[in-house]
Structure of Thioredoxin:
Amino acid sequence: MSTVAVTDATFDAEVKNSDVPVVVDFWAEWCGPCKQIGPALEELAAEYGDKIKIAKVDVDSNPNSAAAMGVRGIPALFIFKDGQVVSNMAGAKPKAALQSWIEDSI
């Protein structure tokens, strides 16, 4: 499975109503650290397959979802489980740190 692009319109359906845990990455095209973690998130999406979903929300195109989550800086990552936030982190991290954070949260 690859990452899923989520919009303000699809946020509830893709994230809050998901049957599996969802990692949400709030990012923007102009954000250097966001681009740094992008490939790691793609790899993790492929490795986890159907066990989790990794969603990407472009904050420039979808400001309402970011505002609703209180995102002030990017990249901002949240893990949702059963429609609720169970963990969050800000900033770019290496793939191993992202994987460890996901494992500890789901």
